[in-house]
Request: fold
Amino acid sequence: MTEDIAAWLERLRGKFVVFEGIDGSGKSTQMQRFVSTVHAGGVVVCEVREPGGTPIGEQVRRVLLDPANDEMDVRCEMLLYMASRAQLVVEQIKPALERGELVLADRFISSTLAYQGTAGGLSEADIRSVGEFAVRSCYPDLTVILDIDEITAAKRLVGNSKHKAHVQINQPTLFSDRMELNDAPYWRKVRQGYLDQANRDPDRYLVVDAGGGQDSVFEALMEGVKGRFAAV
Reply:
């Protein structure tokens, strides 16, 4: 690792960075590559996921993602995500930040704004009001959006054995668990929800084109994050 990379990685200590994107964007893969790079730079990482990340949150996750719960109202859905998030902040995120660790989260409040807000029809004001109560001003320093269109994302998922039996590129079912059993127009709305957030608050969002190969996407990700923290 070069001294240049090591220097700006040091500035990530005590920061909170979130990775977002629709399924098939490569979000989790790129986050894991980023975690490995940060570890190699000697920075302690607290890695969390949503929903879940705590024993209570994992129980909430099972309810949220169970396909049997297809009658769940979007308001109930939003409140369950926020409940899991509230526990995650208290139990994991805030203590890690206080220890000076880098917190890396696979999803956070931007997901709720995109999924239950833009795609689900709830108002941004209502979501932010509940979110403020849940996270108590514990917001990310940076939210990275791995951006990709829903058709390309679906094509990627065809190769994943978990999704093979469920993916239809142009037709209704693209994914497999309860939250993923939605049609292409829904995923277009989710994607647009993310992009709208980034356009409204560019200082706190980084949009990375996730349409290329893993290496080129990771290079763009590293350059983008460096640009946000190198001079901090």
User: Anything to note?
Assistant: Residues 161-176 have pLDDT under 50 and may be disordered. The chain is about 55% helix and 10% strand. The radius of gyration is 17 Å. The domain at 12-229 is CATH 3.40.50.300 (Rossmann fold).
